[in-house]
Amino acid sequence: MTEAAFGFKDVMFLSLKIAEVMFGVGLHIFQPLVIIFCFGLIAILSAFFGLGVVQPMDYMIFRVPWLVLTMFQAINISFNYVLCIVTGPGNPPFKEAIESGDVKINTDSTVKIKICKKCHRIKPERCHHCSLCKKCVYRMDHHCPWIATCVGHYNYPYFYKFLFHSWLGCGVAFVMAAPRMLGLWGLDRGGPAGVSYLTSLLALCGAIFLAVSFLLLWHTYLLCTNQTTLEFYDNKTDYHGLQANGHFTPNPYHLGWWKKNVEQAFGPGSFVQLLVKLIFPMRIRPAGDGIVWDKRTIMKAVQVKRT
Predict the structure, then answer these.
(1) Which residues have a Cβ under 8 Å from the Cβ of 35 and sit 6 or more positions away?
(2) Which residues cross the membrane (predicted)?
């Protein structure tokens, strides 16, 4: 084979393909280990909740509520983590299933459905192809290695609740256990080993709390504006491009009021009902089917006034 037939670009393309395949194989091998690691981390922090804080409490009146809170948070975190994995984000059907009539979609003739060239599934709006999962995902936000799948339409509420309860649990545990580090709750009982044990767990708990805080804040913004991480960057790029020409297009899925946007992920309900869905472990059905979406009334490009 001559150099002209197999040049530098071909070598680079082949190298990238090999790297992509190796990364995909490695990811599939280590994904079960990542999930086991996460369950182990949940167990360690749950034990820290109970033993690291309850032990120095001298009165049963303080121990019982704390143990109840510990169990409640451990169940909540585990429940939502498991449902993130087993529920999945939702994947559109293959075009052959639509053409044969085996699968029917609730849409009208005005909605144009594309076909993905990579996985040959239908590709409605807000749907993206994941190169790691090798298939399209409804309302894809991102591929999360911690749950070994994508975060999308059907498992997004569980992902958000997993972040929320992990943040709340680590934050409360850190605040309750920190005084013991300062010697306010009988630090002398544990000795040097107890100090090292508590210091390590406090550092782990604090690091997770800070990391999840930024992630939770980010997804709270996305949730209240009804957009995904991918859509945020697409909207940002489109906004700057259109603004340079004197126009901008608003996010078509932003329904105006934050509660309406939240209902798209958590399902319809009053403020109290949405709060109950957030706090307690339960199954949640998002609004819509992942194909047809509610949109704001004004969707045309808006003229930007220049001064």
Answers:
(1) 85, 146, 147, 148
(2) 29-54, 162-183, 195-218
What residues have CB less than 8 Å from 172, skipping those under 6 apart? 69, 73
| Angle separating helix axes 191-225 and 258-266, nearest 10 degrees | 110
Q: At residue 133, what is the residue type? A: C
The number of domains in the chain is 1
Say if 1 falls within a structural domain.
no
pLDDT band for 292, please (50, 70, 90 cuts): confident
Question: Catalytic annotation on 224?
Answer: no
Domain for residue 262, yes or no? yes
Is 113 contained in some domain? Answer: yes
Confidence at residue 247, expressed as pLDDT on a 0 to 100 scale: 53
What is the distance between the alpha carbons of residues 173 and 171, in angstroms, rounded to a whole number? Answer: 6
From the candidates 130, 144, 170, 224, which is the catalytic residue?
144
284, 277 Cβ separation under 8 angstroms: yes
Q: What is the pTM of this model?
A: 0.81
Q: Is residue 197 part of a domain?
A: yes
Per-residue pLDDT reduced to its tens digit, 95-122: 776 666 555 666 555 566 789 999 999 9
